Amino acid sequence: MRAPGWPARLTDGSVGVRPLRLREAVTWVEIRVRNGEWLGPWEATPKAMSATADAWAQRQTIGVYSRMVRRLHQQARLGAALPFAVTFQGRLVGQVTVSTIVRGALNSGHLGYWVDRGYAGRGITPTAVALVVDHCFAAAALHRVEAYVRPENTASRRVVEKLGFREEGFHRRYLAIGGAYRDHISYAITVEDAPEGLLNRWRDTRASRT
User: Fold this and answer.
1) Where are the alpha helices (DSSP H) in 11-162?
2) Residue 168, Cα to own-chain centre: how many angstroms?
3) What is the pLDDT of residues 117-156, one digit of tens each?
4) What is 10-208's CATH superfamily?
5) What local confidence, expressed as pLDDT, does residue 47 receive?
6) CA torsion, points 132, 137, 141, 142, in degrees to nearest 10?
């Protein structure tokens, strides 16, 4: 029996999301190593791990990628996660993952995302997130999606704010990153907040700016 909403391939123009592939390990490692300064300050680490370039590189290897993909695909089959590669014109450029999916009365998941810095500012990340959240509310039948973002991470905050996520709280020393616990802002959206769908809302937002 398949978990609700998995697997899936979703597209909007040149932007797509699909399951991660083991065979793209080399591409993933190249992107991640090259984007260490861009991504490293925002990603969770074991508390004792530093934020140095060497520490970052140690976490961006083919072995790490292969284990991550197998773990995420297992969680997806169990209905505990929805992990997607983000593509632009067919090329891997990032990831969007809904993890820690809890069913029952809560029926919610946690959203995480990143994109290659070379593709930032083109609307790729908001489009990919909108595709995934709409999928969460429809095919996966979730009620709520949450995102936790460091206050200093203005680029990531803009993504969820553009899509209409509510800012719901400030969490002191919430998550370990680079050797210390960092404050985070929580955002959330429920299915009732977007009856027209996030992708349609994002299209309208972009159209209003032209």
Assistant:
1) 25-34, 36-39, 53-58, 62-77, 124-137, 154-162
2) 19
3) 999 999 999 999 999 999 999 999 999 999 999 999 999 9
4) Gcn5-related N-acetyltransferase (GNAT) (3.40.630.30)
5) 67
6) 90
DSSP code at position 197: -
- As given in the structure block, the two tokens for residue 46 are 């074991």
For residues 63 and 57, give the distance between their C-alpha atoms in angstroms, rounded to a whole number.
12
Mean pLDDT of the chain: 95
Q: Which amino acid appears at position 125 of this protein?
A: T
Integer angstrom CA distances of residue 102 from 76, 78, 108, 181: 12, 11, 5, 24
User: pTM for the complete prediction?
Assistant: 0.96
Q: Which amino acid makes up residue 6? A: W
DSSP state letter for 40: G
Task: Decide if 75 contacts 111 (C-beta within 8 A).
Answer: no
| Tokens at 11, concatenated | 């597209």
Three-state SS at 194: coil
Q: Under DSSP, is residue 4 helix (H, G, I), strand (E, B) or coil?
A: coil
Q: What pLDDT shows up at residue 51?
A: 63
With residue 202 as reference, give the H or E element that holds it.
helix 198-208
Report percent pLDDT > 70 for the chain: 96
Residues with Cβ < 8 Å from 176, sequence gap 6 or more? 44, 45, 46, 47, 182
pLDDT tens digit sequence for 36-70: 999 999 999 876 566 676 889 999 999 999 999 99
